[in-house]
Structures are given as structure tokens and as C-alpha cells.
## 1
Amino acid sequence: MLQVWGKIWYKNQIYQSHTATDEHADWTEALRLESCIDEIIHALDLPRPIWFAQNHQEMQRFRQTKFHQDHFIEHFPYQSFEIEIVRTDEDDEE
């Protein structure tokens, strides 16, 4: 199971959040993460952010990353959008 928490930050507070879960154990982690991000941006009514190399590195090192206005083609009226991996299959094995 992969569980991802998405948060919209506005004026240094969590404005909205949504948690998505993916149960497809046979999918790659990248596909599972993308599935969760799709669910989160749909639930929070956000445009899809552009994924830079820095976001990939942050996800690998810290299990979280942040998106700002420069990550969106459409207008993004918030401070930031953050995603964080809350739980993975490896966490369940411990």
C-alpha cells in the first residue's frame, strides 16, 4: 500500500489537504505515486504541477516535495502544494 498526503499551504497554514491510497502492489512505485497525485489534485481541484528533477530528488531523499507557482502553467493562487509519502509497503513489513 502507498499512502500520500497532499497539502495546500496558504498564509503559512494548511488550507486544504487530502490523503490518497494506492493498493496496486504489482505496479511500480512511480505509477502508484502518480495515481495518488492524480487523486489528490482532482480532490483539491488543482492543476497538474510540473515535476522537476529537484522534486524527484526530494522525494527520494525525504519522501516529500513542494510545488510553487513556477511549477504550474495555470494560475496557482496559494503559497505552495506539498506531497508527502506517509506509508509504503516497506513500512507495513516492519
Note: DSSP finds three helices and four strands in the chain.
## 2
Amino acid sequence: MLKFYFIPLALGLAACAPAAVNEPAARRVPLPASLPPMKVFADTVTQPPARSNAALAQDFLDLSFRMESGRELPILTRFEEPITVRTIGRPGPSLTPDLERLLARLRREAGIDIASVPPQDASANITIETVPRAELQRLVPQAACFVVPRISGWAEYKRLRRNRAVDWTTLTRRSKVAIFIPREVPPQEIRDCLHEELAQSIGPLNDLYRLPDSVFNDDNFNAVLTGFDMLMLKVYYAPEIRNGMTRDQVAVLLPGILARLNPAGLNGAPEYLGPTPRSWINAIEAALGPRTATSERLRAARRAVSIAQAQGWSDGRYAFSLFALGRLSLRTDPETSLASFLQAGRIYAARPDTKLQTAHVAMQMAAFSLSAGQPKEAIALIDAQLPTVGAAENASLLATLLMIKSEALDLLGRDAQAQQTRLDSLGWARYGFGSERRVRARLSEISSLNPKRRGS
């Protein structure tokens, strides 16, 4: 129910190269006087999960009858349709259109009867309230956003937050929940919160690190609801399932429900990845949490890698451990960073359901290539990933890739293409990074990787 404030996975690129301090004006990246309009994504196209229905049934049970903390949920609870949603608290201009797109997808892909109602409708089942970021983090320091049952606003949450009334394990059915989203954040972060928190407010309450193709995963690679997620929600609201059912009662029904909703899964891949030990989760959260010293985060990342190796994993959890180690060792140990990214990339690339994770690794590798004066290699890495990143609707990653590509084109002397690519990147950056200050900071960070701008 918490979307964690992990270290942004696409930051720190300038660590690949010496910092560009006091650059001569001739070598600075040419910034436009005003940024182009913000770009937004068109209709979402998702792919169904490739796993067997037996594996999907286990995923559903683990998502639905346990919380992120590890506490068991005795029964399944859900809303009785139709479900109504209202927004309060001075939402920014991007929230309403992104919410309406999401609600349309839930109706179309998951078959859930859900719609928005006016802000003044206090009877709404779900209240989405934007809260000043500092105030939200003062009460829940690690959360980017979160959802709470039985209440309909921030004032009510502050009054009852230590009361059992807001304990999910005490519910017998869902009738009212509140989602809290920080106000002063980029449009993409608001949208990501909408997808994860609305999905958990109406459906499963757990996150599983073993899931490579889901927003129900705290690695935060997938930011918009996937084909897997929509199937889980569709099962959650299947007519056979009712409020108050136990895990065993739901388990008996799942084979028939999945056979009807996902017939392709009768012949899907039988792989089921085992449970994730709490020791690994603790290590990853320590490595990627925002309030820990860098040295301790690095030690925690190494612990996560060691635990993954001891578990004998070859899936995305081992790759994510390596990815975290690569990110955290960028500034202090570039050789370890590069080796970790390469190994993570090999693991991700070997699996059909981790294409987006492969793109994140490719971005880091493209940054290394640009910094090393290998622009053609950087461009090849980026071009191979652009369709995947666009399909995943990750504007910040897409903008970063295009910024790196523009610097690589500049290094090749292809000035007109570099300028056009940079302009394309800025449109996506408006959505991914938000304020003009943040966009320009990212552009300057990427430009410092260009050897020509470093004067090397």
C-alpha cells in the first residue's frame, strides 16, 4: 500500500565521467530559451502474461492474502460494484486526464465498473487527495504515496492513523478508502502513484519482488498497469469470488476462473519463482531507501547480491540486486558498477518478460559508452530500447535516452539530428521530470558525459 521513495533508478549518470566544472561557454549544451510543449502517451497496449495459469494462481493468492509487511490477510475483501472515485486537494493539470485514462482502462481491460464523480460527492468509494509533499513525508517518511482504508481525507487520516480503523486486516469488505499523493511532483510520478495505489485500493494489497511484469513490485520498473495486473484485477472481480472468502476457498475457484479468463495460460510456461526471504527485502530497502548513508546503502546492496547468490536465483531478483549495486557504486567504483550492470543486463535480456528492465540497464551502458567516446555504440544501445520504453510509458527514461542520443549525435558531428533529438527529449522530459529547473538539470547532467563538452 506504500509506493516507496527509492533512489531514482535513472539518476547519477554524471558519475560515469569527470564532473564538468566551469565549462567554457562553447562546450556547454545549447539550451532553448523556452521548453517545447509537454508530450503525453497515446492509448496503452499491453501484452498478456506468458506464465501458466497454475503459476498465475499462486501469484494471485500471494498478492491477495498477504500484505507488504508480511502480515497475513485472513479473508479477501473488495468493493461491491459500481465503484466511484473523486479527487480533492488542488490536483495539478495532469492528474485528471491521467486518472480518466486509467479508469477507462480498468473498465475496458479488467471489466470493472468504476467511474469518477464530482469532488463534492463525499459518498465516493475512493477519495484521491493531493497533499503537500513535505507534510506527507513528515507523517510517512518513506512513502511516495499510499492508500488507507475506511477514511475519505487527509484530516481524517491524521486523526485516526494509529487507530485499528485503518488496519487492512480488520476489514470484512471495502466501502471507502483514501489515496494520498504528493502535490509538488512531476506528472509522471503522479500518474505512477495513481496506477499503483488505485490498483491496490480495489485489488491485491501485496507487492512481490519476483513479479517481473507488474506494478505490484517495489522495484518500480513497471509504472503503469500491465497485462498481468489487469488479469489479476479481472480475477479479483470475477463473479465467483465474494467478500469474506478465505485463501483455501479462493484457491479452489482459481483454476476455473483462469481457464475462462486466460485460456492461453493452460499451455503457458510452468515456471513459478519461490518466495523472497525477508532478509533480501530488508537489504534492498536499505540499499535503495532515501534516508541511509551512502556507505551503508552500498553494503546493503552487496548483502542483497550475496543473498541472491545463496538462494541460487537466476531471475529478476538477482539482476535487481546487481542493478542496485551498479547504481550505488557508480561514483566510488566504476569497474564494479560496469561489471554489475553487464551481469544484470545479461540476466534481464535472457527473459522475455524483463524487456523494460533491460532498457534501464541499456541506458546506463549507453551513458558509459558516451562518456568513453563511443557514440555509435551508445546510439545502437538506445535505438534498440526506444520501442520498449515508449510502450511502457516511461517518459523520464525515454527523455534520458534521447538526451544521451543527442549528445552522441553531437559527438559524431551530426548537429541537425542532435538538435532535433534534444528537442524531442525535452517534450518527454516535461512529463517525466516536471519543472523546467529539473528538466534543465537533467539535460546538463547528460551533457557532462560528452567528452567534447568536458574538453577531453
Note: The CA atoms of residues 64 and 204 lie 5 Å apart.
## 3
Amino acid sequence: MEVKIIRSQNRRKTISARLVNNIIQVNAPAGMSEEKLAEAAAKLKERIEKRLQKRGLASPADLYAVAQKLNQKYFGGELKIESIEYSTNQNSVHGSCSYKKRTIRISHRLAGMPEWVRDYVIVHELAHIIEPNHSSSFWQLVNRYELSERARGFLMGVGHHA
């Protein structure tokens, strides 16, 4: 995505960015060094691109509906979750669960994978609400999902390919 730098004599310290006609417009102080400006512009560009990427993902309501369906099927509807959403800053894990807060975050990378893989990760994270560790009883819960072995293999293959 193209970045356009606009220097202003009126700005003293702050730098900001916004999207204008698919161009990231960065407003910066006129006296800011090129090095600092390049670093700040790169961070702002990354933040805007992540925001745009997240907008293109399934809504939290859609993910919540999927989680509730899986909760019903594999846990008898007994689990209560507060929220589930895609996260654009989970690049080394596929999902995470805060079992005390009952919140689940799913990596945005899963949106481009088959639904059964995403569902496996959701079941995995739902199981953490009951078992916060990776004990044998945890894996018994996860393995209720009939495609769990296949999904784990898929995710391992994707990880090695990347």
C-alpha cells in the first residue's frame, strides 16, 4: 500500500496517519529526522493494514455463532464464553484462550484455511475453559472433534511450509 508523507510546520511532536483513497497519508512535523519518520511511518502503515485486514474477517457475531454451535455439539452447550474474535497479532499461535475471562482469540491466518481447521482451533480453545493446560484430559476433550487429528496435521504442514 502506498504511503504519502506530509510534513507540517504546525506540528511539533506528533505524527498521525489515515487512509485516503487507498493511500496511507502520514502527517509529521517538518523537523522530524528521516530515520525517525521512516520508522514511525512503517509502524503506522502496519497498524492500518492490520485494521483493514481485520475488517475483512468474519464478524465477532459470526465467530460467536460458530463457537456456540461447536460448544453445543462437543460440550453439551455447558461452556460460557464472553467473546471470541480474530486477532491480527497472533502469528506464532493459532488461537489463545483466557479461561478466567472466558475470552478466545483466533489468528486471522485461520480465515484463509478450511472451516474444519478453524473449527478445530475453536474446539481446542473451548477445551481450555475446562482444562487450562495440555493434560491428557484436555486432549480427550479436544479429540471429541472428529477431524482433530487431520486438522493438527494440516496446521503442522502449513507451519513447516511457511
Note: Residues 3-55 form one domain.
## 4
Amino acid sequence: MVRILVADDNPMVRHYLREVLEQHGTWRVCDEARTGGEVLPKVQRTLPDVILLDFQMPELNGLEVAKQICQLFPKIPILMITFHFSKQLSEAARDVGIRGACAKTDVSSIMEGVEALLHRKTYFPAIQAGIA
């Protein structure tokens, strides 16, 4: 069973992501975090196989949290999800050690991203025209 930690400040988005991810037969959301400050303690406690991490959260943003996680748990891959997907954010995510980034509105990208990270690949899809 693949264990996924979902970190997003919006409870509806967390619920939606849980529903989508758990449609995959072997994926389970092992925990959820609603603020950047909650993420690291939950990672330490649950040791997930993959982390879905929102960029904009209260307390610490996704890049700040990811930097800490990548230093302490370099083997746990992170997929950054955001409404503000851009080339600049993808590059900043790579710079802190995040292994994938995509728009949280693109369900197929989220699923592809998790799959890629589970196979020790990176996932930074090309920026589509019109996405800033």
C-alpha cells in the first residue's frame, strides 16, 4: 500500500485529493496537513511514500516546508500542487529538492506525477499556453 500525505489549507481540496488518489487501488492518504507548520511533524510521524504539498499555505509556504523535508528526509518525494503553476515556480521547486510540480486543477497530472515519483522519476510537465 502506497502512503500519501496531503498538505493543503483548503479542506475541500484535501477531501477532493483524497477521493481522487484513493481511486487508485493501492494508494491511501495516510494523513493530512492544513498548514505549512503541520507538515513536518506529520511527515516525521507517518513517514509517507509521497507528499502532495500545496504551494500557498498558512505559516510556511510549500517551498519553505519542502526545503526542510528534503534536508531531513531526502528519499521522500514531493509533488508540489498549486493553482499558480508557472515555469518560475517549477524552477524554484526543483531548486529546493522537490521532484515534481503541477497544477492542482489537473487531475491527470496529479495522478501522473505521483506515479512518476513512485518510480523514482521527476515530474515537471511543460507549461501549457495560458497558464501563468
Note: The longest helix spans residues 107-118.
